[in-house]
Amino acid sequence: MHIAEGVLSAPVLLVGAVAAAGLTGVGVKKTDQDRIPVVAVMAAAFFIASLVHIPLGPASVHLILNGLMGALLGWACVPALLVGLGLQAVLFQFGGLTVLGVNTVIMAAPALGLGLVLRPVIQGRGVVAVAASFCVGMGGVIGAGCVAALALYASGEEFLSAAQLLVAAHLPVALLEGGVTAIVVGSLKRIRPEIFAATSESGV
User: Fold this and answer.
1) What Rg, from alpha-carbon coordinates, does the chain have?
2) Cα–Cα–Cα angle for 11, 74, 94, nearest 5°?
3) What is the mean pLDDT of each run of 10 residues along the chain (204 residues)?
4) Strand partners, 62
5) What are the two backbone dihedrals, phi and then psi, of residue 54, each rounded to the nearest 5 degrees?
C-alpha cells in the first residue's frame, strides 16, 4: 500500500505532510506514558507484517494491520504507523521520506476513524463484537486503498487505472485482515482485557 517517491504531485505531498503532522501531534498528545510499550509492540508488528509479501498476479500484497492498530491504540495508532513507515522507508526504501506524510495518512486515517467509532461495540460480547472487529480489520485495508487511490487520482487522471487496480488487488487482503483482527481482538479480550480498558480511560 506504499506509494513510491516521484509519483505524487507536490500539492498532494504537501497536503499529506500537513495532515500527517496534525494527526501525529494529536496522537502523541493523547498517548499516555504507560501505553508506550503497547504502542511500540504494535508498531513493530506493523513493521514486520508489511515485510511479508504475498504474490498476487503481476504484483504482490501484504498484511497491513492498520485496522487492528486503530482498534487497540485509538489515536496512538498514528504515531505508531508513522514510526513503522519511517523505518521501512529508511531501511528498505519502501515508500520514501517525501511521501511519508501521505503514506501515514493512507494507513492511519481509516484505521483511526473505524477504531474510534467501533471501539464501544468491539468492547462488548457476542457475535456483534466479533463482527465489529472483522469490520475494523477489513475496513482499515479498504479505506487505506481508497485513500491511496484518491491520492494517485489527485496527482493526475493518468493514474486512474493504477488506483483502481490498487483497490481491487487488496480486496482479498481486506478479508484476511478482517479475520486476523477478529481473532487477535478476541484473544486479547480474554488474556489482556486491560489493553481496551486503558485505551478507553485515556479518552482515545
Assistant:
1) 16
2) 45
3) 82 95 94 87 87 57 86 92 91 85 94 91 89 94 90 83 78 89 90 68 48
4) 53
5) -110, 120
The pTM of the full predicted model, rounded to 2 decimals, is 0.86
Q: What is the largest CA-CA distance in the chain?
A: 49
List of residues 6+ apart from 83 with CB closer than 8 A = 43
Using N-to-C axis directions, what is the helix angle for 100-122 and 127-154, rounded to 10°?
160
Q: Give Cα 71 to chain centroid, integer Å.
A: 10
Nearest Cα residue to 77 out of 131, 124, 27 = 27
CATH number at residue 47: 1.10.1760.20
Reduce the secondary structure of 109-159 to three states and give it as a string.
HHHHHHHHHHHHHHCCCCHHHHHHHHHHHHHHHHHHHHHHHHHHHHCCHHH
**Grid coordinates of 139:** 475496513
Task: Please report whether residue 2 resides in a domain.
Answer: no
176 within domain boundaries: yes
Position 127 in a domain: yes
